[in-house]
Amino acid sequence: MPQTDDSHAVAPPGARWRAGLKGRQVEPQARERLAVLCAGLEPRADLLIEHLHRLQDADGGLRQGLLAALAERLRLSQAEVHEVATFYHHFGPVDDTAALPATTVRVCTSLSCAMAGGESLLAGLRQRLAGDPAVRVVEAPCIGQCHRAPAACAGQHQLPAASVESISAALAQGQTGPRALPVSGAPESASDYAQLRRLLAGALTPDAVLAELKASGLRGLGGAGFPAWRKWETVRAQSGPRYLVVNIDEGEVGTFKDWQLLATQPRLALEGLLIAARVVGADKAWIYLRDEYHDCRVLLQDELAALRQRIAGWQAEFPQVAWPEIELRRGAGAYVCGEESALIESLEGKRGLPRLKPPIVALQGLFGRPTLAHNVETLSWLPAILERGGAWLAGQGRRGRSGLRRFSVSGRVKKPGCYLAPAGITLRELIDEYAGGMADGHELQAYLPGGASGGILPAALADLPLDFDTLAGQGAFVGSMAVVLLSQQDSVREVAAGLMHFFEHESCGQCTPCRAGTAQARALMQAPAWDAERLADLSNCLREASICGLGQAAPNPFDSVLRFFPREVQS
Ligand SMILES: Cc1cc2nc3c(=O)[nH]c(=O)nc-3n(C[C@H](O)[C@H](O)[C@H](O)COP(=O)(O)O)c2cc1C
Ligand code: SF4
Ligand code: FES
């Protein structure tokens, strides 16, 4: 029997880690440095990604020696740490002696930025910084600043409307930390947390909240549009402990509504969270924030600190109330982690691999417990619904649709931005009434109603109501309401190819149809004339055999081109 040397290992009773580490030995210096870098973080396996962020932020990469020490600290195998470290795009395991640049600049080349010159910005920046060992320039998918394209991020400093000059200036001035948002430190107003206080004081009962929610017709705004009250009732009916998860992963190309909401009204999200937690009886809540939103992370950290103080005050006033603990977690650059079960895996400290359903997360979610998972905007509607009544929200809308929708509008319009508009508004109305019309010199050729996933529609269909369930006949959907406008200056086939590149890059790889199918589709889409038959086969296979919505929606771009713009891809 092989002998193991476990002299360096201290396994606590009951740990799932086995004495006798496999793999690399842990150096004492690595152990000491790890302790310094991860000070204040509990050594819990579910906090693996938080630990990895500390190492990545400190060194600009993940040194193998520190990863071995981390495995020891979290009582995980080195293989488990390695597989998580290599899954997320914002982590990079490297040799202990590798030279690492102090700053990484990410330049977005996704659709809205590509239209605004993202590719030439990337090339220009690479040229300008060639030979500078302190900076690494990488291409990145959408960073949620599509309304001010092209966007980049220098270290943790988001730079909308970026140019080679503005990025170089930020680097020269050492501006690589999170930017401050204007609402940061804003004093509390009388309306902040007012509906929560009514609930705590008994002026509203949990049943009354649920009744208003039902009356409002509020649907999940993360993409699927599922009625919110149904999930609440399901979770509430389960035995505890129950959990709440707030999804702020917002990785869908062209979507920035959650960023806009958080950056301007962060307390609505926190109030909605606390109301939901109280009504469904959630013991603990997690906020999962995409890593690219460094500014919102700082804002939320400050708001949560202030909220904890407020709660300390409320505890005296409402001694019977059990307050949920709230954990703020950082994503690490994986679009698929927006899918709720992948997000839950990520919160558990694992790779973001979507789970097979059933069971649905409302029954068996985080750590196997009933979990209410919501998009942050969905929860942010709670204060308004309780203040104005559910019927008020239900009464909004056009063409028989109900509610208000936050559209992220980008591309060839005069005023790209985030607009709160009636559900059922048409694209033409959205452009004319909200986005200032098409940009000068641009005529509408086509549009994406729901980011990368929602298909591409021709200008001839600009009078359809934009809402859940209305575009299925056209092979499209609104999803997270990311509307991107294309003009006669854009090539629809190139747009579709770029979106397929995105899906291939973001596929988690666990199902073969999605892993291999997105790569094959991208290759087929390079040909001057597309092989429509093979693409149709691939489309079928991706839709039928993919575990999650990423693979199921991946064929939408090429299916749309074949259906609405066939002449673009015929020889
Ligand atoms: C590939 C993929 C990515 C997703 N990304 C997000 C996301 O970034 N934010 C989000 O709220 N929902 C996202 N979703 C939808 C979630 O799985 C889930 O439906 C949603 O968070 C539930 O909240 P809601 O009911 O409030 O919409 C994504 C789904 C898929 C399939
Ligand atoms: S469909 Fe794609 S992203 Fe979704 S689980 Fe399968 S491989 Fe992963
Ligand atoms: S920030 Fe570039 S496309 Fe969204």
Keywords:
binds FE2/S2 (inorganic) cluster, 13% strand, Arc Repressor Mutant, subunit A, binds iron/sulfur cluster, 4-stranded mixed β-sheet, alpha/beta, 571 residues, disordered N terminus, 5-stranded mixed β-sheet, 5 domains, globular, Rossmann fold, Glutaredoxin, single chain, binds flavin mononucleotide
What's this model, at a glance?
The protein has helices at 28-37, 48-59, 64-74, 78-87, 111-115, 118-129, 164-172, 194-201, 206-216, 228-236, 257-264, 266-280, 294-317, 340-347, 376-380, 382-388, 390-394, 427-434, 492-506, 512-524, 532-545, 549-553, 556-564, and strands at residues 62-63, 93-94, 103-108, 135-140, 152-154, 157-159, 242-248, 282-289, 325-330, 371-375, 404-411, 417-422, 444-448, 457-458, 482-487.
Task: Characterize the structure shown.
By secondary structure, the chain is of the alpha/beta class. The protein has 5 domains: 28-94, Orthogonal Bundle (Arc Repressor Mutant, subunit A); 103-172, Glutaredoxin (3-Layer(aba) Sandwich), CATH 3.40.30; 194-388, 3-Layer(aba) Sandwich (Rossmann fold); 404-487, Ubiquitin-like (UB roll); 492-569, Up-down Bundle (de novo design (two linked rop proteins)). Helix content is 41%, strand content 13%. It has helices at 28-37, 48-59, 64-74, 78-87, 111-115, 118-129, 164-172, 194-201, 206-216, 228-236, 257-264, 266-280, 294-317, 340-347, 376-380, 382-388, 390-394, 427-434, 492-506, 512-524, 532-545, 549-553, 556-564, and strands at 62-63, 93-94, 103-108, 135-140, 152-154, 157-159, 242-248, 282-289, 325-330, 371-375, 404-411, 417-422, 444-448, 457-458, 482-487. A hairpin with an 8-residue loop joins strand 13 and strand 14 (457-458). Helix 2 packs antiparallel against helix 3 and helix 9 packs antiparallel against helix 10. The longest helix is centred in the middle third of the chain and has 24 residues, at 294-317. The protein is globular, with a radius of gyration of 24 Å. The termini are far apart. It binds flavin mononucleotide, iron/sulfur cluster and FE2/S2 (inorganic) cluster. Flavin mononucleotide is lined by residues 220-224, 226, 247, 249-252, 336, 338-340, 373-375, 378, 548-550.
